[in-house]
Write a structure and sequence with these properties.
With 261 residues, the protein is of the alpha+beta class. It has a single domain (2-196, 247-260), classed as Beta Barrel (Hypothetical Protein Pfu-838710-001). Helices cover 17% and strands 44% of the residues.
Protein backbone atom coordinates (compact mmCIF):
# COMPACT_ATOMS: atom_id res chain seq x y z
CA UNK A 1 0.00 0.00 0.00
CA UNK A 2 2.98 2.35 0.48
CA UNK A 3 3.28 2.81 -3.29
CA UNK A 4 -0.27 4.16 -3.39
CA UNK A 5 0.30 6.87 -0.77
CA UNK A 6 0.74 10.39 -2.17
CA UNK A 7 4.23 11.76 -1.48
CA UNK A 8 5.22 8.86 0.82
CA UNK A 9 7.77 9.53 3.56
CA UNK A 10 8.73 8.64 7.09
CA UNK A 11 7.85 11.04 9.91
CA UNK A 12 9.31 10.75 13.40
CA UNK A 13 7.84 13.05 16.03
CA UNK A 14 9.08 13.48 19.62
CA UNK A 15 8.32 15.89 22.44
CA UNK A 16 10.24 17.35 25.34
CA UNK A 17 9.12 19.37 28.33
CA UNK A 18 12.60 19.62 29.82
CA UNK A 19 14.25 21.60 27.02
CA UNK A 20 13.24 25.10 25.96
CA UNK A 21 13.01 26.22 22.34
CA UNK A 22 16.40 28.05 22.30
CA UNK A 23 18.11 24.90 23.63
CA UNK A 24 16.49 22.70 20.99
CA UNK A 25 17.40 25.16 18.24
CA UNK A 26 20.98 25.23 19.51
CA UNK A 27 21.16 21.43 19.25
CA UNK A 28 19.85 21.57 15.71
CA UNK A 29 22.35 24.28 14.82
CA UNK A 30 25.26 22.15 16.07
CA UNK A 31 24.22 19.01 14.23
CA UNK A 32 26.85 17.59 11.82
CA UNK A 33 24.17 17.24 9.12
CA UNK A 34 24.34 21.05 8.88
CA UNK A 35 20.65 21.80 9.18
CA UNK A 36 19.79 25.29 7.96
CA UNK A 37 16.59 27.24 8.37
CA UNK A 38 14.69 27.31 5.07
CA UNK A 39 11.59 29.39 5.95
CA UNK A 40 10.97 32.18 8.43
CA UNK A 41 9.28 30.85 11.59
CA UNK A 42 5.51 31.20 11.45
CA UNK A 43 2.24 30.27 13.12
CA UNK A 44 0.48 27.17 11.80
CA UNK A 45 -3.29 26.82 12.25
CA UNK A 46 -5.26 23.58 11.74
CA UNK A 47 -8.97 22.83 11.73
CA UNK A 48 -9.53 19.06 11.81
CA UNK A 49 -12.61 17.54 10.20
CA UNK A 50 -14.09 14.20 11.22
CA UNK A 51 -17.28 12.19 11.05
CA UNK A 52 -19.97 12.86 13.70
CA UNK A 53 -18.83 9.72 15.57
CA UNK A 54 -15.12 10.77 15.33
CA UNK A 55 -14.14 7.79 13.22
CA UNK A 56 -10.70 9.14 12.25
CA UNK A 57 -9.90 9.96 15.86
CA UNK A 58 -10.94 6.48 17.00
CA UNK A 59 -8.75 4.92 14.30
CA UNK A 60 -5.73 6.87 15.60
CA UNK A 61 -6.37 5.98 19.22
CA UNK A 62 -6.85 2.31 18.31
CA UNK A 63 -3.68 2.24 16.22
CA UNK A 64 -5.38 1.16 12.99
CA UNK A 65 -2.60 0.45 10.49
CA UNK A 66 -4.24 2.20 7.52
CA UNK A 67 -5.85 5.45 8.59
CA UNK A 68 -6.45 9.04 7.57
CA UNK A 69 -7.12 12.48 9.01
CA UNK A 70 -8.50 15.54 7.24
CA UNK A 71 -7.67 19.13 8.08
CA UNK A 72 -7.84 22.70 6.84
CA UNK A 73 -4.44 24.40 7.27
CA UNK A 74 -3.40 28.02 7.03
CA UNK A 75 -0.51 30.18 8.23
CA UNK A 76 0.11 33.55 9.84
CA UNK A 77 -2.40 35.48 11.87
CA UNK A 78 -5.53 34.06 13.48
CA UNK A 79 -7.41 37.12 12.25
CA UNK A 80 -7.74 38.58 8.76
CA UNK A 81 -7.69 36.69 5.48
CA UNK A 82 -6.11 33.22 5.22
CA UNK A 83 -4.68 33.61 1.71
CA UNK A 84 -2.88 30.26 1.45
CA UNK A 85 -5.37 27.89 3.07
CA UNK A 86 -5.37 24.26 1.94
CA UNK A 87 -7.39 21.17 2.65
CA UNK A 88 -5.08 18.27 3.47
CA UNK A 89 -5.49 14.53 3.81
CA UNK A 90 -2.83 12.89 5.97
CA UNK A 91 -2.64 9.14 5.39
CA UNK A 92 -0.77 6.47 7.29
CA UNK A 93 0.09 2.94 6.19
CA UNK A 94 2.13 1.18 8.85
CA UNK A 95 5.21 3.34 9.41
CA UNK A 96 4.83 5.29 6.17
CA UNK A 97 2.97 8.60 5.91
CA UNK A 98 1.56 10.40 2.89
CA UNK A 99 -0.18 13.69 2.27
CA UNK A 100 -2.45 15.05 -0.45
CA UNK A 101 -3.29 18.76 -0.55
CA UNK A 102 -5.69 21.00 -2.42
CA UNK A 103 -5.63 24.82 -2.32
CA UNK A 104 -8.72 26.66 -1.11
CA UNK A 105 -10.03 30.14 -1.95
CA UNK A 106 -9.14 32.77 0.68
CA UNK A 107 -10.87 32.30 4.02
CA UNK A 108 -11.84 35.21 6.24
CA UNK A 109 -10.58 34.80 9.80
CA UNK A 110 -11.66 37.29 12.46
CA UNK A 111 -10.66 35.37 15.55
CA UNK A 112 -13.09 32.60 14.58
CA UNK A 113 -13.95 30.28 11.71
CA UNK A 114 -17.23 30.87 9.91
CA UNK A 115 -18.78 27.54 8.92
CA UNK A 116 -20.75 29.10 6.03
CA UNK A 117 -17.50 30.67 4.79
CA UNK A 118 -15.66 27.36 5.16
CA UNK A 119 -18.37 25.47 3.27
CA UNK A 120 -18.34 28.10 0.53
CA UNK A 121 -14.55 27.76 0.17
CA UNK A 122 -14.80 23.97 -0.02
CA UNK A 123 -17.61 24.22 -2.57
CA UNK A 124 -15.48 26.55 -4.75
CA UNK A 125 -12.38 24.31 -4.58
CA UNK A 126 -11.48 21.95 -7.39
CA UNK A 127 -11.81 18.55 -5.74
CA UNK A 128 -12.12 14.98 -7.03
CA UNK A 129 -15.70 13.70 -6.59
CA UNK A 130 -14.72 11.12 -3.97
CA UNK A 131 -12.92 13.75 -1.90
CA UNK A 132 -15.87 16.12 -2.10
CA UNK A 133 -18.26 13.35 -1.06
CA UNK A 134 -16.06 12.50 1.94
CA UNK A 135 -15.89 16.15 3.02
CA UNK A 136 -19.68 16.40 2.84
CA UNK A 137 -19.86 13.67 5.52
CA UNK A 138 -17.48 15.44 7.90
CA UNK A 139 -17.73 18.31 10.36
CA UNK A 140 -15.23 20.38 12.40
CA UNK A 141 -13.86 18.48 15.40
CA UNK A 142 -10.73 20.27 16.66
CA UNK A 143 -8.68 23.45 16.27
CA UNK A 144 -4.98 23.69 17.06
CA UNK A 145 -2.14 26.10 16.41
CA UNK A 146 1.59 26.33 17.11
CA UNK A 147 4.76 28.22 16.18
CA UNK A 148 7.05 26.33 13.76
CA UNK A 149 10.73 26.53 12.73
CA UNK A 150 11.74 24.78 9.47
CA UNK A 151 15.13 23.19 8.72
CA UNK A 152 16.74 21.19 5.91
CA UNK A 153 19.96 19.16 6.04
CA UNK A 154 22.88 20.13 3.81
CA UNK A 155 22.34 17.09 1.57
CA UNK A 156 18.61 18.04 1.31
CA UNK A 157 17.53 14.56 2.39
CA UNK A 158 16.20 15.32 5.87
CA UNK A 159 13.65 17.93 6.91
CA UNK A 160 13.25 18.90 10.55
CA UNK A 161 10.69 21.10 12.27
CA UNK A 162 10.54 22.46 15.81
CA UNK A 163 7.08 23.39 17.14
CA UNK A 164 6.21 25.27 20.32
CA UNK A 165 3.38 27.22 21.91
CA UNK A 166 0.93 24.43 21.07
CA UNK A 167 -2.71 25.30 21.78
CA UNK A 168 -5.99 23.42 21.31
CA UNK A 169 -9.64 24.40 21.15
CA UNK A 170 -12.82 22.37 20.77
CA UNK A 171 -14.66 22.86 17.49
CA UNK A 172 -18.37 22.32 18.22
CA UNK A 173 -20.70 22.09 15.19
CA UNK A 174 -21.93 25.68 15.47
CA UNK A 175 -22.30 28.45 12.90
CA UNK A 176 -19.08 30.09 14.10
CA UNK A 177 -16.08 28.34 15.62
CA UNK A 178 -14.88 30.86 18.17
CA UNK A 179 -14.15 28.66 21.16
CA UNK A 180 -11.27 29.94 23.31
CA UNK A 181 -7.95 28.16 23.01
CA UNK A 182 -6.47 26.39 25.99
CA UNK A 183 -3.28 28.04 27.34
CA UNK A 184 -0.11 27.04 25.45
CA UNK A 185 1.45 23.79 26.56
CA UNK A 186 5.10 23.55 27.59
CA UNK A 187 5.79 20.91 24.94
CA UNK A 188 8.43 21.39 22.28
CA UNK A 189 7.83 19.02 19.37
CA UNK A 190 10.72 17.90 17.17
CA UNK A 191 9.80 16.15 13.93
CA UNK A 192 12.13 14.57 11.39
CA UNK A 193 10.81 13.84 7.88
CA UNK A 194 12.62 11.90 5.20
CA UNK A 195 11.87 10.02 1.99
CA UNK A 196 11.70 6.24 1.85
CA UNK A 197 15.05 5.82 0.10
CA UNK A 198 16.77 7.65 2.98
CA UNK A 199 15.74 4.98 5.48
CA UNK A 200 17.12 1.79 3.92
CA UNK A 201 19.60 0.94 6.71
CA UNK A 202 16.96 0.97 9.44
CA UNK A 203 14.01 -0.03 7.23
CA UNK A 204 11.78 2.43 9.04
CA UNK A 205 12.03 0.81 12.46
CA UNK A 206 13.17 2.07 15.83
CA UNK A 207 16.39 0.36 16.88
CA UNK A 208 17.09 -0.04 20.61
CA UNK A 209 20.67 -1.20 20.01
CA UNK A 210 23.60 1.26 20.22
CA UNK A 211 23.89 3.32 17.03
CA UNK A 212 26.77 2.74 14.60
CA UNK A 213 29.22 5.58 13.90
CA UNK A 214 27.59 8.59 12.27
CA UNK A 215 26.19 12.00 12.94
CA UNK A 216 24.17 12.18 16.13
CA UNK A 217 21.51 14.63 17.23
CA UNK A 218 21.20 13.77 20.89
CA UNK A 219 18.38 15.21 22.95
CA UNK A 220 19.55 15.00 26.56
CA UNK A 221 17.11 14.08 29.28
CA UNK A 222 17.16 16.08 32.48
CA UNK A 223 14.83 13.80 34.38
CA UNK A 224 16.68 11.38 36.61
CA UNK A 225 14.40 8.48 35.74
CA UNK A 226 13.51 8.05 32.05
CA UNK A 227 9.89 7.00 31.92
CA UNK A 228 8.98 5.42 28.62
CA UNK A 229 11.53 4.79 25.88
CA UNK A 230 15.21 4.78 25.11
CA UNK A 231 16.15 4.09 21.54
CA UNK A 232 17.34 5.46 18.26
CA UNK A 233 16.11 6.15 14.78
CA UNK A 234 18.63 5.12 12.15
CA UNK A 235 19.13 7.07 8.92
CA UNK A 236 21.69 7.02 6.15
CA UNK A 237 24.41 9.43 7.23
CA UNK A 238 22.38 10.87 10.10
CA UNK A 239 21.69 9.34 13.46
CA UNK A 240 19.03 10.68 15.77
CA UNK A 241 19.42 9.23 19.24
CA UNK A 242 16.41 9.70 21.47
CA UNK A 243 16.88 9.41 25.22
CA UNK A 244 13.57 9.75 26.88
CA UNK A 245 12.94 11.34 30.19
CA UNK A 246 10.35 13.87 29.24
CA UNK A 247 10.48 12.72 25.60
CA UNK A 248 7.77 10.62 24.02
CA UNK A 249 6.25 9.72 20.69
CA UNK A 250 3.50 12.17 19.91
CA UNK A 251 0.66 12.95 17.53
CA UNK A 252 -1.15 16.28 17.48
CA UNK A 253 -4.42 14.57 16.59
CA UNK A 254 -5.22 12.07 19.38
CA UNK A 255 -3.16 13.99 21.93
CA UNK A 256 -5.27 17.05 21.34
CA UNK A 257 -8.61 15.41 22.05
CA UNK A 258 -7.45 14.11 25.40
CA UNK A 259 -6.74 17.70 26.42
CA UNK A 260 -9.91 19.25 24.98
CA UNK A 261 -12.83 16.93 25.53
Amino acid sequence: MNSTLPNPRYERKFTTQTLHVPEVLALVGRHPALFREIYPPRMVHNLYLDSPDLRDYQDHVSGVAHRMKTRIRWYGSWSGAALAATVEWKLKSGLVSGKATQPLPPLSMNGSVSLPGLKAALAAATLPPRRRFALDQQQPSLLNRYHRHYFLSADRRFRLTVDSGLQFAAAPPAATLGAPFHPPTSLVVIELKYDLDAADPCRGHYQPSPPPPGAVLEIPARDRQPQSLSGAVGLRGVRVRVRLGGLARFSYFPGAFSGVW
